[in-house]
Design brief:
coiled coil; about 400 residues; 8 helices; mainly alpha; disordered C terminus; disordered N terminus
Length: about 400
Amino acid sequence: MLLIGRTDQVTGEPAEPTAEPAEMQTLATGDDGAPLHHRKTTKELTEEFKNLNWAKVDEYNSFKARLEEQACAAERQRRKNWLRNELEAQLEEQRRQKAAAKQDDLECAKRMQQDLEKWKEQERAKQKAAYEKMQLQKEVLDAQMQERHKIEEESKAEQLRESREILEQVSRDIEIEKRMALKAKQQKARAMQEILEVTATERRLAEARAKKEQEEDMRLLKLSVQLEKEAAERSKQERQMLLSLHQSRADKIAMLATVDKKELATQCALKRDAADQARKEAMEKEAAARKKAEQLKVHEYLKLQQEEKERRRKLEKEERYEIQRQQELDAEEYKRKQAVELRSRRELCKRQQELLIQQMEERKLNKDILVSQTEMKLNRRLLEEVNSYLAHKEDLPKTSN
C-alpha cells in the first residue's frame, strides 16, 4: 500500500518537469534553428510557404516526425528511467525504514528482554526473600507447633491421667456405694428378717395366748355352764326342798291354822322362790357380760396386732421403694456424668481435629503462596505486557517483512 501511494504521488506530481512535445520545440527553435525572438513574421512565412518544395516539405515533415518520435521515445525512456529510479529510491527507503523498524523492534525487544530479565531477577530475589522469610516462619511455626504439640501431648496425658483417676475414683466410689448399698440391703434384710421373726414369734405367742385364752374361756364357759347347771340343779333341789319344806310347814300350819294362814304361807314361799330366781338371772347376766368383755378385749388385741402388721408391711414397702428410687437416681446420675464426660471428650477431639485441619490449611497456604497479594497487584500490568510481548514475539518479524 505504501508503494502504490508513493507511485500515485510520483505519477501525479513528478519530481522534475516533463519534456515538451517535438512540435513545440520545433516552433520554438524555428526552421533554421533560430531562437523564438528571431522567428519570421507570418507574411514572410506565407511568402516562403508559397515558394516551398512540397516534396522536401514532406521529407522534412517525415524527418521531424522521426525526430519527434525519437524525442518521445527518449522522453518515455527518460520517464521510465526516472520512475524506475524513483521506485528504487522508494523501495530503498522502505527497506531502510523496515530495517530501522526492525532494528527498533530488536532494540525494544532487547530492552524488554533486559527489563524482563531484570524483573525476573527482582522476582527471584523477592521469591528468595519470601522463601527465606517463609522458611523462617516455617521454622518458627514448626517450633511453635512442636511446642504446642508437646503441650497438647502433656495436656492430653494429664487429661488422660486425670480421666483415669476420675474413672478409678468413680469406680471406687461406685464399688463402695455398691458395697454400702449391699451392706445396707443385707442389714435391712436382716432387720426385716428379725422383724418378721419377731412378728412371727409375737404372732405365735399371740396365737398361743389367744388359744390359751380361748381354751380358758371355753373352760370357764364349760365351768360356768356346769356351775349354772349345778346351781340350777341346786336351785331346783333347793326349791324342791323349800317347796317340800314349805309344804310340810304349810301342812303342819294347815293342820294347826286356818285356811287363810295356809294361803299366806304359800305366797311367802312363792315370793322367796321368785327372789332366788331373779338373783340367779342377775348372776348369769353378769357372767355373760364379763365373758363378752373378755371376747371384745381379745378381738381388740387381735385387731391391733393386724394393724401393726399392716403398718410394718407398708413401712417395709416404702423403704424398698425408697431404696429402689435412690438406686435409680444414682444410676441416672452416673449415666449423666458419663454422658457429660463423653460429650466433653468428643468436643475436645473435635476441637483438636479442627485445629489440626486449620494448621494443615495454614501450612498449605504458606507453601503455595511465595509472592504476596500486594506484589502481584503491583506487577500485574508489567506481567501482562511481558506476556503479550512473548505471545506476539514470533509474529513481529512476519509483520515487518
